[in-house]
Amino acid sequence: MATINVRQLDDDVVNRLKRRALLNNRSLEGEARHILECAADDGMAAKRAAFLETMDRLSPLTEGRKHTPAEALIREDRDHGHRDTL
Description:
Elements lengths: L10 H13 L4 H14 L2 H15 L11 H10 L7
């Protein structure tokens, strides 16, 4: 795991973080870690959870059917000259 240092943080910010940490029953470091984790999440965890829920719900609908591997579909598409335009 990595370690970061935050220098020249205003005393008022530190005091507010300490109060927030106390309210959340965390240490100052734990509160800062929680804030950084939430800020870095960018919603991907929620999107991933929603995708997995949808996948679990739809999976039984295709049970017992033959599935073409994605690699084969991509290869077929490329062999026919279709490319991404990005």
